[in-house]
Amino acid sequence: MRKAIRSSALGAAVVFLGCAAVLAQSPGEATYKAKCQTCHGAAGLADTSAGKAIKVKPVTDPSVRKLTEAEMVAATHNGMGKMQPYKDKLSDSEIKGAVGYFRTFLK
Q1: Can you tell me the distance from the alpha carbon of 9 to that of 30, in angstroms, rounded to the nearest whole number?
Q2: How does DSSP assign 24-61, residue by residue?
Q3: pLDDT tens profile 66-85
Q4: Which own/partner contact pairs does 73-82 have at CB distance under 8 Å and 24+ positions apart?
Q5: Domain limits, the chain
Q6: SS3 at position 83
Q7: Domain 27-106, CATH class in plain words
């Protein structure tokens, strides 16, 4: 009986922690991972095969580092270089959230 209770408690804890990890992810982080990470990479280093293929600049590049948040939002909204525009695919708040998450890599 104790073993069954212990197993149930352990199972509940695993489910709880799994849900907490999902909920801890910000909407901007979720959007970035779903729409941007394929080319820009998990840490903004453009170290993915897609990023390398289209020559995405990493977050460490001086030309990227100097962009303001508003410029990054505009680039995401309208497209930049080979990057497609996301104005018809993401809401303004989703774009701003993804850019905000990307900017955490600047630190």
Answers
A1: 29
A2: HS-HHHHHIIIIIHHHH-TTSS--SHHHHHTTPPPTTS
A3: 999 999 999 999 999 999 99
A4: 73/99, 81/54, 82/54, 82/55, 82/56
A5: 27-106
A6: strand
A7: mainly alpha
